[in-house]
Amino acid sequence: MGAYEAAGESDEWYTPRYIFEALGVRFDLDVACPVDRTHIAVPADSFISEGSLDKQWSGLIWMNPPFGHQATKRKWLGKFFDHGNGIALTPDRTSAPWFREAWRRADIVLFTPKIKFVRPDGSLGLSPGTGTCLWAAGPVAIKALHHAADGGLGIVAKPISPGADQ
C-alpha cells in the first residue's frame, strides 16, 4: 500500500491518459480492466474485467494489475511474460524478489517518475509513495517504451543476462 492510500479504501487506481499518449500504441486487450470503465483511458479494442488469469489473452495487451501481495504480482507477471506481447505497469520495487524475477524476463523496462493515478470516481490521486515502471514484452512494446522515453516519460533500462559480457 502506497503512502497515499488509506487503509480499507479501494485498491483501484487507473492509469492516466498521458501514459498512453506517451506510448503511442493501441492495445488489442486490457487484461485487468475494472467492470465500470467510465474513467478508464486505455486505448484497447477488448477488455477483461474478471477472471483474467484463467482466460486466454491475445494480441498486444495492456496490464495494470492489482498491486497487492507479491504472490499476486508473480501470477500476473508470470502470465504476462508467458504471453510475450504487451506492456505491464507495476511499482518499481527493485529490491523485491518478484521484481528481480520479472527483470530477468523483460525485454526492456521504463522507469517513470511517480504517477498520480486516477481514482474510481475520476479524481486524480495524490503523489504515490514510490515510482512506477513499465515492462515490455515483444517488439511493439519495446518500440512503444522507447517512444515514451524519447518523449520524456522516463528512462529505459535493458536487463542483461547474469554473466553476460558487458
Tell me what the structure shows.
The protein is α/β, with parallel strands linked by helices. It has one domain (17-157): Rossmann fold (3-Layer(aba) Sandwich), CATH 3.40.50. It is built from 4 helices and 7 strands, in the order αβββαβαββαβ. It has a 7-stranded mixed sheet with strand order 2-1-3-4-6-5-7, sandwiched between helices. Helix 2 links the parallel strand 3 and strand 4 (86-91). Helix 1 crosses helix 4 (139-150). The chain is globular. The model is unreliable at 1-8 (pLDDT under 50). GO terms for molecular function: DNA binding; site-specific DNA-methyltransferase (adenine-specific) activity. InterPro entries: Dam_MeTrfase. It comes from Rhizorhabdus histidinilytica. It holds the Pfam family Dam.
Which helices and strands appear, and what pairs or packs with what?
Blueprint: H1 17-23, E1 27-30, E2 44-47, E3 61-63, H2 70-83, E4 86-91, H3 97-105, E5 108-112, E6 132-137, H4 139-150, E7 155-157
Parallel strand pairs: 1-2, 1-3, 3-4
Antiparallel strand pairs: 4-6, 5-6, 5-7
Helix pairs in contact: 1-4, 2-3
InterPro entries: Dam_MeTrfase (IPR008593)
Keywords: Methyltransferase, Transferase
Organism: Rhizorhabdus histidinilytica
Largest sheet: 7 strands, mixed
CATH topology: the name is Rossmann fold
User: What is the N-to-C succession of helices and strands?
Assistant: HEEEHEHEEHE
CATH C-level class is Alpha Beta
What coarse outline follows from CA principal-axis ratios? Answer: globular
Tell me the number of helical segments per DSSP (H or I, 4 or more residues long): 4
Terminal Cα span:
37 Å
